[in-house]
Amino acid sequence: MHTAHLKIAAGLLATIGCSLAAGPAPVVLGSAKTFAILANTRVFNTPTSAITGDVGVASGNISSLSNFGLVRDASQQFSTSAQVNGRVMVGTDDAPTPQLLAGAAVDMQAAFTDAMGRPGADFVGLQNGRIVGGNLVPGIYEWTTAVTIAGDITLTGSSTDTWIFQISGSFNQETNMRITLAGGALPQNVIWAIEGIVTIGANTLLQGNILATGNVEVGANAVHNGCIYALTTVELNMATISCPGGRRGASPADDDIHTGMCRNFNSNSVCDRVCDCRVRKFECFDSRR
Ligand SMILES: *[C@@H]1O[C@H](CO)[C@@H](O)[C@H](O)[C@H]1NC(C)=O
């Protein structure tokens, strides 16, 4: 009874303080958050790509990454690449990297399961899975089919509004198609959960984090504001991928900068989010979860 009252009180506080956030509670990425690209098996690349955030292959060795021009760090814990603003990590790097990657892989799987399993979709089978355009308001969108982005779409909402797209099939964004944000909406608040293969066409613009069970192929010169979490492999072709929560830089000093960003983000952020970077470095906890 007391617990119930506390929950109600907390709910009221959240409601009173932040009544304007629309859409589902955010999907927590956990320790996967610093990765612009996290794959379980391989990451292929056709240069030159520009990636902001860490790149990791959880069950791979250095041969699991191609054409990154990797330079092994003296610590033996990661490598660097001129194409990556962050660290490149594989399962055979020195400790603590294998544990870190294993934890991130678990968190990636948990985030996928959470996103895919959220009940109460606001929209089911929108445009029969062939999206030819329009404005998509915050909420949960569910398709039991493949989805193709065949026109330009806009996601309009505030900086705290959220979108979860649940796709039980492949996802295909056709060449030149653009997904844009409006009204202050942020890419980290957009989740594409895909049970299948992902094909992002050439010269596209995409917003949001991808969580996919199948291979993710990013076409030539695509620009993606978001991170890619693939339970299998990722293939890049001269891609620009900017992960909002991704690590910048590769030196230990950059860890502190990242912590600062985390604190900063939350001090400037809305009242319904609480960050405690001291508990688990690099991670922001959302008090609504
Ligand atoms: C990486 O792993 C593969 C598959 O286990 C193996 O064939 C290959 O020799 C390894 N490469 C390196 C550099 O360790």
UniProtKB/TrEMBL annotation:
* The UniProt record lists the keyword Acetylation: no
Recorded hits in InterPro entries, A to Z, give:
Ice-bd_prot
Q: Which family does it belong to?
A: Belongs to the ice-binding protein family.
Give the protein name, as stated in the record.
Ice-binding protein
Recite the UniProt keywords alphabetically: Signal
- Tell me what organism the protein belongs to: Mycena venus
Q: Which residues, if any, are the signal sequence?
A: 1-21
